[in-house]
């Protein structure tokens, strides 16, 4: 077998698949796909060889829960909260999510596209190759649709998986008329947005949408061909995680207040638990029941929840570390949380692992200066890691630390 491109002698490689973690490993690409992965000693012949001594490797990272498309700034609100203002006080003064809604409604398609593109570039720099992005700052049919149009036309090499989240908050013009707003989400927003999205999501919690409203919106989304997911059990226990699991949700996210019945329902339906340590840190929430999720065999993913209010954190590596420090994950769980299990949360069996049949996404990183090239070091240190080499769908995005214009990996030879 002759391959196009061989990443040779990777000190430690997380495959995310059956081969687990390999030492002195190699990955071979051919025709823009992963053709082979295994120990360097038995690597196939390749037209081009990249020596990876001193580097660690992982599948391209997957950030499976973000609100990365928004306009405006919430820095002033951050300072007010530090000074003691409550979330409710800020919301009643027109702040919080609704201030982001105001700014996002005022942004045209070109502006939204450019904002998201720049944020995706920052995420790509640390090794992220697939990002889920939610709507929910439009809260009317035209802006929700415009957000999705921006997501699917960024021109970024980072793969964007779009989620419709019209039920993120009740907009100011529907204040006191939540039922009418739910009706608008189902009858007007969904038909326009469903063709552009992959998932339907609802913020179901005390102070947000009720369990019955969430069920109605998710069922309507499923009828439009969308995959359900849910913001569940963050502020109060509502039963939303079990409800969504029963509807076939690929994930339930947040889960700080999840009970044993919710854990059992998620285990039964194979629903992924998406843990969001950034929001937990900023909102001073208690940790989710990680020990119970682990004991029940619920797959756990870790994501940034990147948003301008409760989690202004776009570095997935930082979240992997926080998930260990603040939630009790092990290092191996955190690593699978930002790769394989994040792909599962998105219902994508080809993302977050490396092997024949996976997407050809690979990141190689150097450890912090003076440290050994071990995966655990990248979780031990809090953030600040940059991709040394990055390949997405078989194309070079970063090579020797330099951003590339999507050249085919192994270009110059092969198919
Ligand atoms: Zn969220």
Overview of the structural elements:
This protein has two domains: 115 residues, Urease, subunit C, domain 1 (Roll), CATH 2.30.40; 285 residues, Metal-dependent hydrolases (TIM Barrel, Alpha-Beta Barrel), CATH 3.20.20.140. The strands form two sheets. Strands 1, 2, 3, 4, 5, 14, 15, 16 and 17 form a nine-stranded mixed sheet that branches. An eight-stranded parallel sheet has the order 6-7-8-9-10-11-12-13. It has 415 residues and is of the alpha/beta class. The C terminus is likely disordered. The two termini are 13 Å apart. The structure holds zinc ion. Zinc ion (ZN) binds next to loops.
- Assign a percent range to the helix content: 25-40%
**Helix segment count?**
15
Q: Indicate how many domains the architecture comprises.
A: 2
Shape: globular
- Mean of the pLDDT scores? 95
End-to-end distance, in Å? 13 Å
Give Rg in angstroms: 21 Å
Bound molecules: zinc ion
Summed up, what is this model?
The chain has 415 residues and is of the alpha/beta class. It has 15 helices and 17 strands. Helix content is 34%, strand content 25%.
Characteristic terms for this protein:
415 residues, Urease, subunit C, domain 1, 2 domains, 9-stranded mixed beta sheet, 8-stranded parallel beta sheet, 17 strands, disordered C terminus, binds zinc ion
